[in-house]
Design goal:
Chains A, B: This is LacI family DNA-binding transcriptional regulator. The structure is a homodimer. Chain A is built from 12 helices and 14 strands. By secondary structure, chain A is an alpha/beta fold. The longest helix of chain A is centred in the middle third of the chain and has 20 residues, at 169-188. Chain A is elongated. At the A-B interface, helix 4, helix 5, strand 2, helix 6 and helix 11 of A face helix 4, helix 5, strand 2, helix 6 and helix 11 of B. The structure holds a DNA duplex.
Chain lengths: 339, 339
DNA sequence: CTGAAAGCGCTTACAG
DNA sequence: CTGAAAGCGCTTACAG
């Protein structure tokens, strides 16, 4: 890969020469802090005009190298394949720009090694701050950042080294489970436990959601068997396989389900279609996470929509304020019925 | 926002001092090209070990500033809210990393002003190359890049200044329309024109898809009225409004539809539910773009899945080869039936 | 008030 | 073969 035209780019020295002044003056004018320097308005205008004519663009590598802070903010994110992370990334970018920060984002595909590599790369690019979203090992990332004197914040999954902003997974799961239980009872006239599918048993969010799931059952006096909690991973295939395995073992599956993420739901729906298991009557579904098409999939699908704007507000508040106490901020998600 | 610990980061000079050698030697060892310098293996190992111990990280801002090429590659993308752009971004990142390039991505929300601003920002960060994905004004971006001597490639939407990689929209739309027409004829026993909803009449892809839509109708001898082509924009609300307006004006809508993107489909499905217009029988749907949940929405939804891996292969081939002839490479999409 | 000069942390051509 | 030195394009403390 080579530059097509090896153009020598215009620098502040070129501009200084053209304007008959110094590079310092040009820098001051173009960076906007020239009032302090009492540069004449006409010189300022001349420089601005020349910069435009010459197509001058600040070399950020040089600028950042010289400055105290880079004003670059990094984020790592697991995937771009669902609405939740998509909106996190999109809103993060917008909020960063609003604050005059340059966002750089890397998708790490839930791969621990890639996460570390990406974090190191961002530190090499001198990020002022790094947001670890849904990281498999947030504390490792926090340590790496800390060694470089860079602030870090966890998003979506909490860590123990730096502040975290996450959804209130317990409350969301509790309400979601209540609703699905109620929907089932209304339709089938009996209280029966739901199936929990998807996520990693070891991650904090899944653990909290399972806790909410169990609490809702306990409230209504329904026992939850161990075998009803399939924390098989997020990937569609994993959810699909877990359903198949369970059906083979148990025979009949519950008439209501808590699916832990739209990603897993993809596999669940595929299995339902292919197996024909629910051919007579579709199960009542609750899904942690939101997707507009999932909302159209059935008549009584309940979904938990995580409150991304509030979560990012909290993240930037931590960043802006410089707070670094080890708090975990839990943002209530929104549970909505659709259909 | 401030760094929590104003740590002075380790530089090659620190390492040189610790190792009792020069910064040049450290640089040569750490950048991997030290065989040419005949540095002793043991010195190399010592330096490597020290770097590790000290948590040394290369300052890319300094490195890039000094080097000929930055090895940074930029991409602008309209949105992160659908599978198509999501997979483009995810695969682009992976392919860039494979080639030792550092990807930076900005989402411009189909906003022409933001696109230009983002392109300029990327040039300031010294990208070697910029990929304009689905840009509203690709030629403007190409001009800005060209002025800075930076290569550009268009993706998804073509431009006239630099090479473009796009889907074969005509062929995809032709096949999609044929299938939906056939599905309708099979179920309703009569040939009738479909409705086209979504996209911008002015953009190349939509124009090509409309052309394919018309061609498929022409093949089978069905006339397409002007009023049946609603290129109302991509946003769900726009599609929803266009449907409502048409229903109010015409009364009865066609029993088959070509929906131009999953984004627009969201609005179409919403209108269908709310209006109850198709309460007796769902229309046959074809959707340009693919989404796993859309596939589950009905029994005969046809979808066009754009071939992202092939498209990105073509993009990187252009970049790697340094080709800059103004070709437009059209990648055949995959039309798949689901349900 | 304003410009010359130092220096950010690297890479690499060049002198020894 | 190897290190000292120049220089990438900025920003800013400092001398005039």
């Amino acid at each position: 890969m080579k530059r097509s035209i090896p153009t020598k780019r215009t620098t502040i020295y070129d501009l200084a020469e053209l304007a008959g002044t110094s590079a310092s003056a040009v820098s001051a004018v173009l960076s906007g802090n020239w009032k302090k320097r009492r540069i004449s308005v006409q010189l300022a205008e001349k420089i601005t005009r020349l910069a435009e004519e010459q197509g001058y663009a600040l070399n950020m590598q040089a600028s950042v190298l010289r400055r105290e802070r880079s004003k670059i903010i990094g984020m790592i994110v697991p995937k771009y394949d669902n609405r939740y992370f998509g909106s996190i990334v999109e809103q993060f970018e917008a909020m960063a720009r609003e604050r005059g920060l340059f966002p750089i984002i890397t998708c790490t595909r839930r791969d621990p090694a890639l996460e570390i590599e990406a974090a190191r790369a961002m530190l090499s690019y001198q990020v002022d701050c790094l947001i670890a979203t849904g990281a498999t090992d947030p504390d490792r990332i926090a340590d790496i950042c800390s060694a470089a004197g860079v602030r870090a914040v966890n998003l979506d999954l909490p860590g123990s080294r730096v502040p975290s902003v996450i959804s209130d997974n317990f409350a969301g799961a509790l309400e979601l489970t209540r609703r699905v239980l109620a929907n089932c009872e209304r339709e089938f006239g009996e209280k029966a436990p739901l199936l929990f599918v998807g996520g990693r048993g070891t991650d904090h969010n899944t653990a909290e959601r399972v806790r909410g799931f169990r609490a809702a059952h306990a409230e209504t006096g329904v026992a939850v068997d161990e075998t009803l909690v399939l924390t098989c991973g997020y990937a569609p295939e994993k959810a699909e396989n877990a359903m198949r395995a369970m059906a083979e073992k148990v025979g009949t599956l519950p008439r209501g389900m808590f699916v832990n993420s739209t990603i897993s739901l993809e596999g669940v729906m595929r299995w339902i279609r292919r197996s024909g298991h629910y051919a007579d009557r579709m199960p009542h579904l609750g899904c942690f996470d939101w997707d507009p098409f999932v909302a159209m999939l059935g008549d009584h699908i309940e979904m938990v929509r995580q409150d991304v704007p509030k979560m990012l507000d909290a993240v930037f508040e931590i960043i802006d304020s410089g707070a670094s106490d080890l708090k975990v901020i839990q943002i209530p998600p929104i549970v909505e019925q659709t259909g």
